[in-house]
Write a structure and sequence with these properties.
The chain is built from eight helices and 20 strands. The chain is of the alpha+beta class and about 350 residues long. A hairpin with a 2-residue loop joins strand 17 and strand 18. InterPro entries: AAA+_ATPase, ABC_SmlMolc_Importer, ABC_transporter-like_ATP-bd, ABC_transporter-like_CS, Mo/tungstate-bd_C_term_dom, P-loop_NTPase, Transp-assoc_OB_typ2. Keywords: ATP-binding, Nucleotide-binding, Transport. One of its GO terms (molecular function) is transmembrane transporter activity.
């Protein structure tokens, strides 16, 4: 598979702060690739390095087969969509989208064809004569995206483009973005702190923390097989239980938590009698009114939130609190606050990490 972007041991330092630390990664041609992490993790700096707005202190960056490590932004066939749209307020939608083509002195017919095609892709052709002030936030972001793709870039960089929109519009535009990427075949490099957004959009996700690359993988791999406790906590909701590993049988481990014994899958090599943390997702915990196995744990529901498609519970067990998500089943009545239940999970659904494996 051909690469659209390659970073090799790329680092960037501002004064005494190392924003990016020896990051190596590859974005495949035609891939929707997401840089995910909390504020200050280095994801926007990485995007700016790829776009040419920053120059790395060390390492190399390729766009296709070209080493662009020292090339300025205007000499890279890369375009960026920003959170704040950056549209010209005095130009119409059509003029905004076609601005870069006019700067390149393309013929009027070529400009008209390309801009029309781009506006069709983002479903804004009928608004071609409006000014940005006459558009909604979602429509302005569509204009910004059309302006970025009209010049047929090798790579499109998107810096949290949906974060300023309300939740409903964000979800709608998220679906359109993925469809647009598939239609154009352009490689997208997308920056977000929103884990749900990353899981929904991406072919692959790179998780960053304190300037370091922790894990790259498909959404499924990153969610179900996090490399450490930080990734497990950052991607989705999870329950974390501290205990001692008392027995190992292949990949299965038994953990003692106070007077309870639970099971899970070893996510790393861990010796018996080691302090560990067990990670189990809310949706992987089963509820029953009676104990169904030796490892089922007695618990009490202390909070219940009906969500329509599911019910979210907060459950107390031996002084520990669990979040549990039970999908809606037609005809089933959700448990009520105060109900006594038993918790259990398949051992393959819980991950066991060394207690210090959090970074």
């Amino acid at each position: 598979m051909k690469s659209a972007v390659q970073l090799e041991q790329v680092s960037k330092t501002y004064d005494t702060v190392q924003a990016v630390k020896e990051v190596t990664l590859t974005v495949n041609q035609g891939e929707f690739f997401t840089l995910l992490g909390a504020s200050g993790c280095g994801k926007t700096t990485l995007l700016r390095l790829i776009g040419g707005f920053e120059i790395p202190n060390s390492g190399k960056i390729w766009i296709g087969n070209q080493d662009v490590s020292r090339l300025p932004a205007y000499r890279r066939n890369v375009h960026t969509v920003f959170q704040d749209y950056a549209l010209f307020p005095h130009l119409s939608v059509f003029e905004n989208v076609g601005f870069s083509l006019q700067v390149k002195r393309l013929s009027r017919d070529e400009v008209h064809t390309r801009v029309t095609d781009a506006l069709k892709l983002v479903q804004l052709l009928e608004m071609r004569d409006r000014l940005p002030s006459q558009l909604s936030g979602g429509q302005r972001q569509r204009v910004a995206i059309a302006r970025a793709i009209v010049d047929h870039p090798d790579v499109l960089l998107l810096d949290e483009p949906l974060s300023a929109l309300d939740a409903k519009i964000r979800v709608e535009l998220r679906e359109e973005l993925k469809h647009l990427q598939r239609q154009t075949g352009i490689s997208f490099v997308y920056v977000t702190h929103d884990q749900e957004e990353a899981l929904a959009l991406s072919d692959r996700i790179a998780v960053l923390h304190n300037g370091e690359l922790l894990q790259i993988g498909t959404p499924l791999a990153v969610y179900e097989h996090p490399v450490n406790l930080y990734v497990a906590e950052f991607i989705g909701r999870a329950n974390f239980l501290a205990g001692v590993l008392v027995q190992v049988n292949g990949k299965q481990g038994q953990i003692k938590i106070d007077d309870q014994v639970v099971t899970g899958t070893l996510a790393a090599e861990i010796s018996p009698n080691s302090a560990v943390k067990v990670v189990v997702r809310p949706e992987n915990i089963n509820f029953t009114a009676e104990a169904t196995s030796d490892t089922a744990c007695a618990a009490k529901i202390i909070q219940s939130q009906y969500l329509g498609y599911a019910t979210s519970y907060l459950v107390e067990m031996s002084g520990l609190e669990f979040h549990v998500l039970e999908l809606r089943r037609r005809g089933a009545t959700p448990y009520q606050e105060g109900d006594r239940v038993f918790l259990s999970w398949e051992w393959q659904e819980a991950l066991i990490f060394p207690a210090t494996s959090d970074n």
